Amino acid sequence: MSFKPEVQTDDTGKWYGNALRFGTREEAEANVRDLMMRWLAVRETRVLECDDPVNYRYVDSTGGSNKSDPPLQRRPKRINRSPHFS
Known about the structure:
There is one protein chain. This protein is of the alpha+beta class. It has one domain. Helix content is about 15%, strand content about 30%. The longest helix has 14 residues, at about 25-40. The radius of gyration is 17 Å and the shape is globular.
C-alpha cells in the first residue's frame, strides 16, 4: 500500500499525477503542497491510497528514492567559459 499525490490544473475535471508513491499520507500531502507552491496552474490537490509499492520518500522539501537512499540533490549549474580562458 502507498499514497499518490494528484493535482487538477484546468477545468476539465481530470486529475494528474506521476509515478511517485509514498509510504505515508503525510509524505504525499507534503509533496503535493510543495508542488502546488511551484506550479502556478494547480487548482486542487488530493492524495489517494493505492496498491502500488512505495518508491519515494519526502524529507523537508527534498525527495529521495526508495528507503535508505540519501535525499536527492540538484546538480550545480554549469558555468560556460569563454574559450580564451583556461
